[in-house]
Amino acid sequence: MIYKMTDNIEQTLEFIKEKETKNTIRYQEVKGSGEIVIGPLYIQKNFLPDKIPENIKITINISL
Asked: Is the pLDDT of residue 28 over 70?
């Protein structure tokens, strides 16, 4: 894919809870119609609410 310097790339990705470690929760990216963008994602437990969510969405915004 070719981008111009004025392009703004934004994509929202979905993740599902996969594994819990001592201090983190590992989420696995749900493969959409394209390729995996991030893959496994580790989030510190102290950032998450007390009730750990099973699914999360993350939006990536890249300004060129």
From this structure: yes
Q: At residue 18, what is the residue type?
A: E
Structure tokens at 27: 């989420």
Burial category of 34 from C-beta neighbours within 10 Å (exposed 0-12, middle 13-18, buried 19 and up): exposed
The alpha carbon of 56 is separated from its chain's Cα centroid by a whole number of angstroms, namely 7
The answer to whether 27 touches 17, Cβ cutoff 8 Å, is yes
- Written as one letter, the residue type at 35 is E
**Would you place residue 46 in the very low, low, confident or very high pLDDT band (cuts 50, 70, 90)?**
very high
How many structural domains are present in the chain? 1
* 1 assigned to some structural domain: no
Would you say residue 2 lies in a domain?
Answer: no
Task: Find the domain containing 35 and state its range.
Answer: 8-63
Check residue 58 and give its pLDDT. 96
